UniProtKB/TrEMBL annotation:
Keywords: Oxidoreductase. This is Short chain dehydrogenase. SUPFAM superfamilies: NAD(P)-binding Rossmann-fold domains. It comes from the Bacteria. It holds the Pfam family adh_short. Belongs to the short-chain dehydrogenases/reductases (SDR) family.
Length: 261
């Protein structure tokens, strides 16, 4: 079982949604946080709101530019030991395939896939050397089950699940734990911030996410998965929790259901 207390946890996407809930719950458990998102001022506000604010630090990165983010993070963390990396940052999409411009697909892959690869490369050498560490990546149920309006998002999330499966196999001999989280519908701003076909923000809620679990519940599921060294965990309720099981055991039925939504 992995303890959280006194561990240095690098958390991306920390300023809102699941990440914000994670920051508070991890800090309550005694973690020392490195908080990452794009806006330094928001991160600083968050740091000051947490228990023992001086135990935490801020590292602002734009994960839509993974190479630059890797370079900045490598320099900033050169003298720090990261025990747990939680790749939580991400961007979603709401647009039909025939209406989605190619740059939108590139942005989704940069943030949801390549940034995970880049930040893992920052911490993995140290974890391998210490024979200890934990990589946690928040994918999505959409990384197991493709649905309408999410072709780019789902493609990136499928990719990151495959990458994490490979990483887990490679890291087994090095004592590095790898956990993939698959949230279903979670009531956050993810739909508001989703990209449309031309790359603009959607700017409104959808009923699926509005009816989902709370970010606090999802954060709690993630922490339990870390503590119990789980390989893969689905966090959700209703159809969004059942969909991966249906995909595995009744794929034909699930395809019909998704086509008729």
């Amino acid at each position: 079982m992995t303890a959280i207390a006194n561990k240095t946890v690098w958390l991306t996407g920390a300023s809102s949604g699941i990440g914000l809930a994670l920051a508070h719950q991890l800090a309550e458990k005694g973690a020392k946080l490195i908080l990452t998102s794009r806006r330094e001022s928001q991160l600083e506000e968050l740091r000051l709101s947490l228990p023992s604010p001086d135990a935490h630090s801020v590292l602002a990165l734009d994960l839509s530019h993974p190479e630059k983010a890797k370079e900045t993070a490598s320099s900033a963390l050169a003298n720090k030991t990261v025990d747990i990396l939680i790749n939580n940052a991400g961007v979603s999409q709401r647009s039909l395939v025939v209406e989605t411009e190619l740059p939108v697909y590139r942005t989704l892959m940069e943030v949801d896939y390549f940034s995970v690869v880049a930040l893992n490369q920052v911490v993995l050498p140290g974890m391998i050397e210490r024979h200890n560490g934990h990589i946690v990546t928040v994918s999505s149920v959409a990384g197991k089950v493709g649905t309408k309006l999410r072709s780019g998002y789902s493609g990136a999330k499928f990719a990151v699940i495959g990458y994490m499966d490979c990483l887990r196999a490679e890291m087994a001999e090095h004592g590095v734990q790898c956990t993939t989280i698959l949230p279903g519908f979670v009531h956050t701003q993810i739909a508001h911030n989703a990209l449309t076909g031309d790359g603009s923000l959607r700017g409104k809620e959808d009923t699926d996410n509005a009816g989902g679990i709370s970010p606090e519940q999802c954060a709690s599921d993630i922490i339990q998965a870390i503590e119990n060294n789980k390989a893969e965990v689905v966090s959700g309720k209703g159809m969004s929790k059942l969909a991966p099981l249906l995909q595995r055991f009744m794929p034909g039925l699930l395809r019909k259901m998704l086509a008729n939504r």
